[in-house]
Structures
1.
Amino acid sequence: MESIDKYFIVTRTKTRKGFSRGSIGRIEAETQTGDIVGLVYGSGGGTAKSGGLLKREETYSLTRHQAQLLLFVSPASRRLEILCNQMLFKVICELAQDDLVVVRYKKGFQPCLVKNLMQIGRKDGSDDLNMLGFELQPVSPQNPDKLSSKKPAPLPVFSAADIIQVAQSSTKQPLRDNHTIGINRRTVSRINSLPIMGSRNGFLGKKISSQNTPDIKSLSNTYQLEVGSMVEMASDRNVILYGVIRWIGVPAGKKGNWAGIELDNEVGTCTDGTFHGQRYFTCQGNRAVFVPLEMCVPDGRFHSPSPSSSADTEEFPRTPIVTHIEEDKGEEDVPPLTESEVLRVLEGKMKGIQGHFNSCYLDATLFSLFTSSMTLDRLLQSSANAEMSICRQMRRDIVNHLRRHGFVPAENVMNFRKQLGCNTYVTEEKDPEEFIAILFQRILHMDPLLKIRFNGDSGSSQDAYTHQIILEKNDVGPCPSVQQLLETSFMSCNLKFEEVPLCLMVQMPRFGKNFKMFPCIIPSTELDITDLLHQSPRECFICGHLAQHECTQCFRDRKLPGRIKQYCWTCNTQVHSHPSRQGHTPRSLALPAELSVSSPVSRTHMQLFAVLCIQTSHYVSFVKYGPEPQSWMFFDSMADRSGDDHTGYNIPEVRACPEVGDFLSQSEEDLACVNLSQTSGLVRRLLCDSFMCLYQQCSR
Ligand SMILES: [Zn+2]
Ligand SMILES: [Zn+2]
């Protein structure tokens, strides 16, 4: 079984000797300080050569499979852009035979069927890491038979970077076994076990924010740790490790007291009790770790949070974690807070949802969805869901509690997390989109919110709860709006909404905490999705009559600025008779059957009601709490902390931020030339850290 930590990609720009951004390497060893010694592969794979010392946070772990797929991508910087579209890369890693994909091909787009994974490299097998590409068979929706009549020729091989969209087939055929067709020196082999997506490793685990760490040294003195103490410590990647101290002393060549710890679980790089060749105790393999004693603190899982003894907590409840502030008033539902109530009920410290132990992804998502929006209330209150204990619990202890008291204690959230079906929801940092899928599917029993048609009338439809923006960096300007991102993403992948979604949650193109495709994104307050609807009447871009064609190449044409290019029959002919546009291939639009050419086109808008942001793996949210443009508030479930790391508690905070509303009310032109250095702190966070923008149907 290979270790999933063995390979990595360099994510930071700081060039170290032998490494640059996008370089792929293999971990040779880890130093005591948590740095890694890595070897790096040349552009063609093969054998890892030059290398050196790297900081762990400058890298991102890859599985072997991911490393092989990315290695076939050049230039190296392009690899990070692929990782940026996490959802797409995840499905690319899981591609199976006869999955339908769309690839970039000869300046256009080509649907293809996946036929095989190709290993590209030396035939004698002397390579230590081969590149992987996909053997794809082009399909033509117009002439499905055209290709099969040809005699079999070697199919083209594409890299993961060429694939811009995936429609998985309903019946999964694993990629075929050892089917060798020997093109040049390429051999084909089956990937036996599809790899588990390793992407979570980089930002999983407990956050150690700067406000929590400085006292660790004094803590370990206070706690008088000894052999037999159960302790926890943060690994180099901020994952919390638990174990028992088996030895304390000064190892050869070190200063000060160190602890030899037997961990609860195996960790790849650990020993069976030796440290630099010397044995200090004996345990099972891969469980012993040696760290300076001051890095250890008592195992927090056995210490229930208790009130802090520090003096500055007078203005906060002495007991931070309480199940119910007061006797609950039955299960009566509380409507969403109205604009005039919000600030009175919610603004201030110890307001909102109290964060605890990596819960921020959940706090920020729940706060965004339920404080002021009533889009989901009908689902929450439906009689079928009301019978489910988890739905009832969420409704009573979180949604109604928040609306009634303006505050949800951490324990309510913790009890809810325990019902989510998997232990990792109790302890680990997760991504909001994962929680959203569980919330809608398992708690609210809602069919996928988005039905997205791929490839027009001849294509198929995909279901999803959230939409990940997928596009080329150069398709839009450096500071795009969500409207531009969504349109570009839909046009380049030939996607359309089957129907207007109840709620549209759009994930920005970014990757973990280290890589953002765009330094800044403008969250459009209104999203016009008229031109993104399948079988819905649209206006000609030029004359306003009923449009019958749309053109991807015109969309990319900077000389024809504006929105999606769709034309009536006449304008389509005229536009495309121009010499520079004669090579275009406009597609026909699918139109509803009974439609009068003169009937006016009504536009469909969706309203922005919340933005989830992420900064150094901590999620916060901006929420629109009323119809006034300035009615924006900012929520952070861990804005402050009272007491120390282990006996203290988080102080959630809600702040009104009318400046965000003022900023977003500017004209599109003004927004497009925003000067980040002149914006306020919260506006900057909204623009630079956005992770997901949440839209709902207009209330009017
Ligand atoms: Zn026209
Ligand atoms: Zn065109």
2.
Amino acid sequence: MSGHNVLWVPGTDHAGIATQNVVEKQLASEDPMFRTAMSEVKNKNIKEKQFLSQELYRYKIGREAFIEKVWKWKAEYGGKIIHQLKRLGASCDWSRERFTLDEGLSKAVKEVFVRLYEEGLIYRDNRLINWCPRCHTALSDLEVEHEELEGKLTYIKYQLTSPVAPLSKGGIDGGYITVATTRPETMLGDTAVAVHPDDSRYEDFIGKTVDLPLTKRKIPIISDNTVDPLFGTGAVKVTPAHDFNDEAIAKRKSPPLEFITVIGKDGRMTEAAGSRYAGMDRFECRKIVLKDLKEQDLLEKEEKYKYSIGHCYRCKTSIEPLITLQWYVNVKPLAREAIRVVRERQIRIIPKGWENTYFAWMENIRDWCISRQIWWGHRIPAWYCQELKSEECRRKSGVIVSRVTPQKCPYCSSEKLVQDEDVLDTWFSSALWPFSTLGWPDETDDLKTFYPTTVLVTGFDIIFFWVARMIMMGLKFMGDVPFRDVYIHALVRDIKGQKMSKSKGNVVDPLTMMDRYGTDAFRFTLAAFAAQGRDVKFSEERVEGYRHFVNKLWNAARFIMMNIETNKNQKEIAERGVEVLNLSSRWILSRLATATDNINKALEEYRFNDAASEIYQFIWHEFCDWYIEMAKSDIKNPNLEMSVLRCLLYTLDNSLRLLHPFMPYVTEEIWQKIPHVRRNGEEIQDTIMISEYPKSLSRDHQAEENMSYIIDAVLGIRTIRGELNVPPSAALNVSIKSYSRKAEEILKENMKYLKRLSNSADITIGMEIDKPEGSATCVKSSMEIYVLLKGVLNIEAEVSRLRKAEKEIEDSFFLLNKKLLNEDFIMRAPKEVVEKEKAKYEELLRRKERILESIKKLKEVGGEK
Ligand SMILES: [Zn+2]
Ligand SMILES: [Zn+2]
């Protein structure tokens, strides 16, 4: 509509871990063997059940058959997101739909992997990673959710092999060193005890050894700068194979400390934990270890302790740090560039506040673990030579990374090659989206035309997962940013501001909303509440409210079309364009110009809620409430008829185009039915979708000022009607004291509108008018309005009605006060209930003020002071 060559590519990623989980669960539950097994473990805990579902199924049917099942599942359910987008009226180019596992994108993934490997930016290493024992895969740091939980800090006594001076410094018993830990079961894998080098309490302990309880091992007491003397006793156990800090300590030592893995990939204790514990679940083992320590009198104490525990973002199982061999991307050089382009404003993040979040993460970025031990995804293009027949092959550890499947080892010609079992992190392929979907690595016309793209619209929760990685990969492989603007959209929450979740049962299905209220009303609601930097509190009532707006527009269009269709000069109306004669037409065109400016500006600045509110105000309150109402009499006047009809049509046409991005369906439907007013020989398109988006016209300040007198007068009379409960049918006698000659003139010229719009029988206008006796007053900036009410209103009856209403409010106050002054209620009731009661109180207060104001006015009318 604004004349740009636009491309919006629809598509989805394969959501590796999540999809695999769903399919595993579904397939497992369909399997009779699985069901029998489940009934056997009925009484065991849920974790065990989950392990079972996993292991039984995936490994039973094997890789190929399993992948085939996932593709089948994908064919059945994978279209859901795309279907929702279509229902929402998203104007994507559907012929270009892409999927991260499709052929072209898979080719791009291989290309990127091989190039990064050849440049040394992808490497394989054996180190501690976050492991999910339920999903059986490594996770990147980002995929671990940290949660503060109430746990226990356990103090364990480790006996020194040769005691230091008894009760040495700080009153510490020289026979033991006590360590504090949140994970006692990992002590089976300790390879040292560490203290801070400057901690005088332990000066004599450094260099000694202790007998590690429950094992036959002796371990050293070492010093390390990272030990916090204030944590626990100041002495900590070091378990390099199960803790990231301990891994760092172990690697700093020369020679490095030993790594002993006592927990396996299934979350169960290994043989290395000792025969008593091997095979136990890690949490079960914790209980047994504590029991055993207690029996040997090595458990000093346990105290409550809050600490952060990492969980798998997909299944919420506690993460186990494990030493495994994984693939990594060295992202630091890529991140440096990605920071630079945002600092230099080559990419803008909107709202700007998110830039800090981006910088904070990018500046502390750690290497990205990209291998996942699942089957659904891009299999890593690495093969391992099984024979290592040459010196070169041994030097390369037989690792072959290749774009095509190698037939033999390039180093030793062996034909025994095995491909890596792992797949890549889903985000590895998503990171390439801006160029892989345009045909990269081929040099396509699409890439030339559309890269760099203009804008990425996304959620704040994937700034690191996705946005940052697209920026890094785009810069690396295209030599330019992938997009200019990143618009971080609001999150849709429920009416109370809570995040929607299945477990809370507060999820709103967009399809249901669209079935109930129409897509236009639903879309408009979201746009209207999408204020930058604030979340959307969604309620069905609001959607219902905007459906009235759709109806209002529809009725306005029907009124206009009816009058055009019954006009004998029908053809001429559209062909001759607008020519302005009367004040109201000049005014509405000027207001249209203002609205157009404001909407264009708001859209350019991603203030979608401002744009929505502007178009809503214009169509409902200016076009429908004023212009169309005034036009109703104008079109009966042969001198005005043609120009007013043309202006109606022109304003409607422009309104539809302004509104189209928000409400695509109703605007297209109406636009198809109306003749189009031509301006400057502009071409008329077949669809509103590619018709021109309105640009600003010049404003008519004179018309706006003059019209404001009419609006003030009518609103003033209506206010008095409303406040004093004057029946709508009562035709009123009004006097208006204008403050300027000009206002007087304009009001007099437009008397017929004034009378009709305010339902007044007689209106007297002048600069020297006095307030008539028995009249109510409304003061505006350019005039004072007096409405004669003597004889129209039974003042006594009205006052007593208001007194009664006041009494009712007083009664409600009494009850509310009793509640709100009750400390018990304030303390115990949920916050939102208290807030609601307070809001009720405020509303009653406002109502009471209005009533008292009305009584005062009525008394004035009645002649009382
Ligand atoms: Zn998991
Ligand atoms: Zn080889």
